[in-house]
Amino acid sequence: MRQGGHVTLVGFVATEPRIHQFSDGTAVANLRIGSTARQVDRQTGEWRDGETSFYSVKCWRKLAQNVATCLRKGQPIIVAGKLYTKSYEDRSGQQRSEIEVHADTIGFDLARGEAHFSWNRRSTADPAAMARGEAIRAGLDVEDDASVPGTGQLTGAGAADGDEMFDEQEIAELEQELDASAAEPAVS
């Protein structure tokens, strides 16, 4: 049952993420994170660890795949998501409840270390148009360039007089594709 609260937890990966793929291809990953409160002891002035609380975290789709690929037990992370309570009956027949966080985003706690980020490439409906657009942005001459898929329609600096350097229709289609991909939600 959703409780409506948004939370941000700072802690560490307590269990290796487990990923499951449903028959429709949707991925879900489950993991536990631990969070330990730290406090200054007023008498000694030293930092002391308090009790560690553990939380169940559930991730869906691309976030689940990235979590399974990137996270390992012990790593410092930050999780932001929504709180849900889950009620169940334990083996002895007693009613129990568990708080679960459905993660919207997860990242490494950079206050405690370094991370190296890699973007996920999104596929497009027309990879040839995307390749032409990338080649044009890179300033390449794409006239019949076999290394650039879908080329041959565009001409470069060596074009004969009167030839168009860019196909206006192709540019308009590329702009529409870029606008559509920019409008897509960041979390898939």
Note the topology.
Layout: E1 2-13, E2 18-21, E3 27-40, E4 47-60, H1 61-70, E5 76-89, E6 95-108, H2 127-137, H3 168-183
Parallel strand pairs: 4-6
Antiparallel strand pairs: 1-3, 1-5, 2-3, 3-4, 5-6
General description of the model:
Helices cover 20% and strands 38% of the residues. It has 3 helices and 6 strands, in the order E-E-E-E-H-E-E-H-H. It has helices at residues 61-70, 127-137, 168-183; strands spanning 2-13, 18-21, 27-40, 47-60, 76-89, 95-108. Strand 3 and strand 4 form a beta hairpin. The longest helix is centred in the last third of the chain and has 16 residues, at 168-183. The protein is extended and about 70 Å long.
Summarize the structure.
By secondary structure, the protein is an alpha+beta fold. The chain is 20% helix and 38% strand.
Spans where pLDDT lies below 50 across 5 or more residues: 147-164
> Which architecture name of the largest domain does CATH use?
Beta Barrel
Strand fraction band?
Answer: 35-45%
Mean pLDDT: 77
Oligomeric organization of the protein chains: single chain
Helix and strand succession?
Answer: EEEEHEEHH
CATH superfamily of the largest domain: Nucleic acid-binding proteins
Major sheet description: 5 strands, mixed, barrel
Helical percentage: 10-25%
* Structural class category: alpha+beta
Radius of gyration: 25 Å
Distance between the termini: 23 Å
Number of beta strands: 6
Total helical segments: 3
Class of the largest domain in CATH? Mainly Beta
Whole-number total of structural domains? 2
Spatial arrangement of strands, main beta sheet: 1-3-4-6-5
Determine the CATH topology of the largest domain.
OB fold (Dihydrolipoamide Acetyltransferase, E2P)
Which overall shape is indicated by the principal axes computed on the Cα atoms? extended
